[in-house]
Design brief:
By secondary structure, the chain is α+β, with helices and mostly antiparallel strands. The chain has helices at residues 15-31, 58-68; strands spanning 2-9, 36-43, 48-55. Strand 2 (36-43) and strand 3 form a beta hairpin.
Length: 69
C-alpha cells in the first residue's frame, strides 16, 4: 500500500465550494485510477484542509495524478 497526505490552505469563505468540487468532480476521477483504495478529505472550516489518498502501489498514484491534471 502507498499513502499520501496533503495539506491545503484556502480562503475560508470558499470551504463549501471546495468541499462540493472535491466530492462531485475530483473523487469520481481519482476513483477510476488503477490501484485506488480510498480517499479522505478533512475540511477544518477555517481555510485549511487535508487529504489522505491510499493506493495499492506508488505507480498507481502516478497514473491517478496524470488523470486529474
Amino acid at each position: 500500500m502507498f499513502a499520501v497526505i496533503r495539506h491545503y490552505h484556502f480562503n475560508p469563505k470558499d470551504c463549501a465550494e471546495i468541499d462540493r468540487r472535491i466530492r462531485e468532480d475530483f473523487v469520481p476521477i481519482v476513483k477510476k485510477a488503477k490501484g485506488f483504495v480510498r480517499y479522505y478529505w478533512l475540511d477544518t472550516g477555517k481555510g485549511g484542509g487535508a487529504s489522505f489518498s491510499v493506493f495499492f502501489i506508488g505507480l498507481c498514484l502516478h497514473y491517478a495524478r496524470k488523470a486529474i491534471v
